[in-house]
User: Fold this.
Amino acid sequence: MVEQKAAASRLWAVVPAAGLGSRFGAQLPKQYMSLAGKTVIEHSIAALLRCDELSGVVVALHVDDKIFSGLPCANNAKVMQIVGGAERSESVELALAGLSAAADQDWVLVHDAARPCLSDQDIQALLLRAREHPVGGLLAARVVDTVKRASSQGEAVATVDRNDLWRALTPQLFRYGALRDALIHCRERGLPVTDEASAMEYIGGRPLLVEGSHRNIKITYPDDLTMAAFFLAGGVNV
Assistant:
């Protein structure tokens, strides 16, 4: 009897983009703000599409989104669109459900729509290290500032030891089946999920922190666009 070789796991990406960016303070969602000749989300998706082994990208959009379909990246054969949810975790869960071709052992990169400065080097470092880890992992940056704990009155009451503190970045990389099950577990129990790693932590996982560039910023406030333009002009993928 000839033993069949197991199929190699594939790589997919999910981009939750259903948020309205209320903290940004503009009428246009932050992922559609202009940045270096494109929208923010176009830069974010382009960074993922530069990874040749990627099988497809699912973008989770607001139900009333009328912008994305008009962007050039929407016509890319690897890009799929679905309607997202009210929360990030719901959008990611819906996007996973839309990946009907994915198998439980496939890998999924989840990347913020508003992180346009992701470098090729960071993606490759994450794929190299996190796929060797039993849980998966995420890009992260060490906290370099002094961290204060505040009172309800906004006064500093303590200085927090930052030696073991990291800022979670994206992409975050996990097995398709494990991430899907973790998100369902959290939704059914009403657990707060701020990123995919937190969902994995709730089911006992300890994702690997892969140190990434501090340039991989998230567009949250208007000033962030100036910083992102500076990084892009310097060639974040070199």
